[in-house]
Fold:
Amino acid sequence: MTGDFLALLPKNSFPSLSGEGRNPMPLEATTVFAFHCADGVIIGGDHRATAGHTIFSDRTEKILELDSHSLIAIAGVPAMAFEMARTLQTAFEFYRRSQLQTMSLPAKVRALSRLLRENLPATLQGIGAVAPLFVGVETSDPKARPVIFFYDPLGAHFEATAYAGSGSGMTTIKSLLHYLENWGHPSPAELPLDQAVVLANRLLMTAAEFDAATGGVHADQKEFATIKLLNSQGIRTISIQEQADFWKEAMP
Amino acid sequence: MTEEPYRWLEAISNRREYIRDQLKGGTPVFAVSRPEGILLLGVGQGQSKVFEIYDRHGLAALGHPVDIEKLRQGAIEAAHLEGFNRSARDVTLRRLISFSLSSMLKNAFEQVFAPPFIVEAIFAELGETEAQDTLVRLHYDGDHYYSSSRVVVAHRDGSTDAEAAEWVSKALTPSDPLSRVAGICLSAWQLLHDNKSFQGVTAPVETQLQIPGRVIEAALLDRQRPAPVHYRPLDFDRATSIPK
Structure:
């Protein structure tokens, strides 16, 4: 008994992540991002899923909690990405319950790499590329700070020192975060939670301005980004009402 | 041997005797369904007796540590595969026990050339309300029953199990805080451990949450917890972990 849920799966029938047959029109495009703030790591994303030039959904949740101390932000083909998130959710809990200890952060990071690598055939066929962000904190170390990782579609992972982004709107957001980290006063890493949440929404609004596949923020209709905060205490979802209050406070 | 039915019956009978003998050193475990959730409690000397199985499921068991571990792993595997292939709501004790664990124990018990499970267990499933909670008593031979009582005790002997459960039930009132529920279970634990009768014994007004030289292990399948994971270990040294 190794606590490896992925090893258990092939012995039991379940649908393959990379199926065969005709290529469906993939759902794609998105904007997700993460950056350090004074209270931990902010991870946010829009709600839009597109298929070609069609808006498939404007109610998609792309920031998913994997366990009490790790999150994934999905970008790419949702069918694969959601399945990866669900697999990881089960694998992390399975490990924790069966081994009576939490999986280490490096092991969680590698588990996502492994799923991406196994998704290689779908990636190469052009129907299943996924480029997620992963944010986690090492639970065995009470002083540990949350860490941001970004991945390429083949499974290579890289630690981001200050911020990371993925999806079609990432260039805009990474440019803005780069500017703010280097010349902003205060920098995003120094912002308290309320200001970091406002910044996250403004980043998304800016990305939506230049990318049709990124869903925007409409404060007047109380449509905000999905935003979660991770620190050593765990995950906190910033509710729509909280975001509206922060937004109102920040208005000049 | 198996060609001769009477010998097989004799072997089974010997096996039952052997398992009961092996279980003599075990101490009881408790499951109590309360408005706050389901309390699982055991008292050990270094070996764990209370475990998390799935989002709304827990296990309390006594017996050989290796067999408890095999039962626990079997339950966790079956629950996670079901939860992954279907959904977390599809993981139910009725299916878990009937189609997976019970048959595993029965097979092991009746394979007279293989070692049986030396284990007595209680499985708990948290419902939306106290009335929807499910407590299942599972025996070493796969026999099991769904309890209609809010208190289930697993020990070496079925008659004392029922007597202890009834005593705990009568001692509890609906408004008792969880710390008192645990204290009453520990009083029952002490009586069972000392092989004393429950006849005429009243529950102490002041309950103790310590047993010298022993480790009290408890967990709550917490009904109030919003997260999908409802299992929460309770630490009796830290009063803040126990709901008042």
